[in-house]
Amino acid sequence: MDSITRMLSRREHAFAEVVRKLQQKGFQSEAFLPVLDEFREAGIQSDARFAEMKVRAGFAKGHGPGRVKTDCQQWQINESLFEQAIRKNNLDWFELALQVRAKKFGIGLVTNREQRYKQMRFLQYRGFYQDQIDYAMSVTEE
Questions:
Q1: Are residues 51 and 81 in the same domain?
Q2: DSSP code for 75
Q3: Chain-wide mean pLDDT for the chain?
Q4: Are 64 and 129 in contact (CB under 8 A)?
Q5: Which of the ends of the chain has fewer CB neighbours closer than 10 A, N or C?
Q6: Could you give the C-alpha distances from 23 to 1, 29, 50, 93, 141, in angstroms and in order?
Q7: pLDDT band at residue 81, thresholds of 50, 70 and 90?
């Protein structure tokens, strides 16, 4: 099917994303699901590659693993594929949390409780886990 080929030639797509887009274009599921299954079996469409792309893109945007995981869940990516993509990319989320904090607030010692909570909420919103936030908050300029 030409629509599927064009879609997958531009970038990685999740299976659920391809299905949704084709249905929005008016295609009947019975017509494209067998073709999409063939593409999946041939490795042309891969949820694992989509998860890897989402992990790399999220990391590049300064998003933590929690937010990337939510993005993957939105496209019905299996959690095991997400975890596999995290391991395969071997990214330092702790250092990223520190960089995100430094870019927004600097790396000074925070003595004001309100300011500390503000920075922690920001990192939490960006999708970092508590241990990564604790690390980012513990590093200060000498």
A1: yes
A2: T
A3: 93
A4: yes
A5: C
A6: 14, 7, 20, 37, 54
A7: very high
- The string of pLDDT tens digits covering residues 21-67 is 999 999 998 989 999 999 999 999 999 999 999 999 999 999 999 99
- Three-state DSSP at 13 gives coil
Whether residues 59 and 37 share a domain: the answer is no
108 vs 115: CA distance, rounded Å: 11
Helix (H, G, I), strand (E, B) or coil at 57: helix
- Domain with 32, as residue range(s), is 2-41
Helix (H, G, I), strand (E, B) or coil at 112: coil
Q: Domain tally for the chain?
A: 3
| Pairwise CA distance, residues 122 & 120, whole Å | 5
Give backbone dihedrals phi and psi of 28, rounded to 5 degrees, phi first: -85, 140
- Residues 8 and 28 reside in one and the same domain: yes
54 with 82, same domain: the answer is yes
51 shares its domain with 77: yes
Give the relative orientation of helices 79-89 and 47-60 as an angle to the nearest 10 degrees. 60
Residues 72 and 85 placed together within one structural domain of the fold: yes
6: closest CA among 33, 44, 61?
44
pTM: 0.87
